[in-house]
Amino acid sequence: MKLKGSIVIAKCGRKYIMVKHSQRQWEFPGGHIEGKETTLQAAKRELKEETSLIGKNWEDCGMAELDNGNLALFSCNVSGVPEPKTHEIEIARYFTAPPMNLSFKRFEYFLLLEMAGWQPKKKTNYDIASKEFDNIRSKSSIHLDDWTNSLIKWGRIGKNSHVLDAGCGTGRYSLEITERTGAEVTGLDFSRGMLSKASAKNHGIWLQGDASSLPFESATFDTVIIMLVLQHVDDEPWVISEARRVLKSGGQLIIVTVSHARIKSHIMRHFPGLVKIDLDRFMPVPELKWHLEHLDFQNVHHHKVRSQPTQASIDDIIHRFRKRYISTLALVPEGDFEKNLAIFEKELRKNYGQTIENQVELIFIEARKTYTSESSRLVK
Question: How many Cβ atoms from other residues are within 10 Å of residue 77's Cβ?
């Protein structure tokens, strides 16, 4: 079967390089095979020309059969700042999820990534987690006030606002926003178990649905909230594009996430394997902001919000970890959990004594939709 050329997945940790072609859109480095080049030689040449980087640990990932031709696929490891050496490439940069404007069909990019060893994120079963979710989450009114007030402030939510809480869970913040502002809040979640808990609190507007395919007409909401949700999805830019679609012109998007710096400094760093799990799940804040800006959002800003410090006993912390109070803990292999929990408890008692000062830190990213296009969506 004739090959059109070679293509490269150049990885740096969990990030990979993509290039913006002057005549096309974003794509992986690659191109035609010249003269008597082998497919590997072509891949190495194209990577160097388009990024100035030299790959290491090359692997042959097979042949990719795409709609517009067959490509020999290779992967390698790289480091350093990519700088194109050819006028054909406008810019090269690292991503953890591909931009929306791509040269090929979106599913083909994920196919190529999977061929190069990329794997979807492990998913938490929230139907199971919903049974204990509200019991083991913080009941502190301080945390509830901090986060709710931040959502209202940067979401510009008022009495006449129509708000979508995409990934509403048990409805904690949906209900607080409604109570404090009088806004009409629609709560959407993928988990029936979480929605059942929300509905038991109040007969509000609760819908089962997927944030990557929102069941609403375009330009429906004044504000869309995506609070601690993106770490569960594999295609964050697509979810953001869906949020933009259902926002009215001038509408406000609020994304709540956790920074990589916070993940590395959290007490969970004493629990073997947890930091890596979350670094792999949470998109870095600068990349999130880049995607927002390149999806025609304006006034993109992030705010670091720290709760007031509270004291927690080691026993209480161990109890909450054993109950898997954050989704990360549900992703630890069952056979390793108790062993790692014992290591965690030992480290806490050695380093902190009987109590720990607890301060929760979240990043709130606000962005405004200032341009509305009801044209057809990008093809996935």
Answer: 14
CATH 3.40.50.150 in the chain, residues? 126-369
pLDDT single digits (tens) 42-79: 999 999 999 999 999 999 999 999 888 899 999 999 99
Determine the residue type at 201: K
CATH code, 126-369: 3.40.50.150
Distances in Å between the alpha carbon of 36 and those of 32, 39, 48?
A: 12, 9, 18
DSSP string for 8-36? EEEEETTEEEEEEESSS-EE-SEEPPPTT
Mean pLDDT of the chain: 92
Q: Which residues contact 215 (CB under 8 A, 6 or more apart)?
A: 188, 207, 209
Angle at 331 between CA 329 and CA 335, to 5 degrees: 90
Q: How many CA atoms lie within 13 A of 231 on its CB side?
A: 22
Distance CA 344, CA 267 (A): 9
Token pair of 179 as six digits: 């109570």
What would the two tokens of residue 180 be? 């404090």
Q: Which fold has domain 5-115?
A: Nucleoside Triphosphate Pyrophosphohydrolase (3.90.79)
318 vs 136: CA distance, rounded Å: 11
pLDDT tens, residue by residue, 260-307: 999 999 999 999 999 999 999 999 999 999 999 999 999 999 999 998
pTM of the model: 0.92
Angle at 245 between CA 240 and CA 250, to 5 degrees: 95
Residue 137, pLDDT score:
67
**Contact between 258 and 275 (Cβ < 8 Å):** no
CA separation, residue 70 to residues 5, 292, 324 (Å): 7, 32, 45
